Amino acid sequence: MIRKIVIGRDPKDAMAYYVGMRAGTGKVAAILQDEAWLYKYSVVRYNIYIENEQGTMLWKTIDNMPCIVEYDLKFE
């Protein structure tokens, strides 16, 4: 599970999205790598989903951009 994604060449000037971040009237619910897109086009693509009172929907798609991915590490 991806917890945070930083998009851009220079992390200091990049855009970051994380699960739980406010986005308009909702919040980021999930950040997922699009495996089907990778298989079909050989291009890495991430989908960012938001959740609000209307449900969960695709909000942003990031493809073929330099990214730093931070995974959710829950040790139990």
What does this structure look like?
With 76 residues, this protein is mostly beta strands. It has one domain (2-71). The protein contains one helix and seven strands; from the N terminus they run E-E-E-E-H-E-E-E. The protein has one helix at residues 35-41; strands at 2-7, 15-18, 22-23, 26-33, 45-52, 55-63, 67-71. The strands form two sheets. A four-stranded antiparallel beta sheet has the order 3-4-5-6, with helices on one face. Strands 2-1-7 form a three-stranded antiparallel beta sheet, with no helix packed on it. The longest helix is centred in the middle third of the chain and has 7 residues, at 35-41. 8% of the residues are buried. The mean pLDDT is 93.
Radius of gyration: 13 Å
Strand order of the largest sheet: 3-4-5-6
Distance between the termini: 15 Å
**How is the main sheet built?**
4 strands, antiparallel
Helix content: under 10%
Mean pLDDT score, rounded? 93
| Topology as a string of helices (H) and strands (E) | EEEEHEEE
Query: Residue ranges: pLDDT <50 for 5 or more in a row?
Result: none
Alpha-beta content class: mainly beta
Give the total of domains. Answer: 1
Gross morphology is globular
Q: What share of residues are in beta strands? A: over 45%
**Number of DSSP-assigned strands:** 7
Number of helices: 1
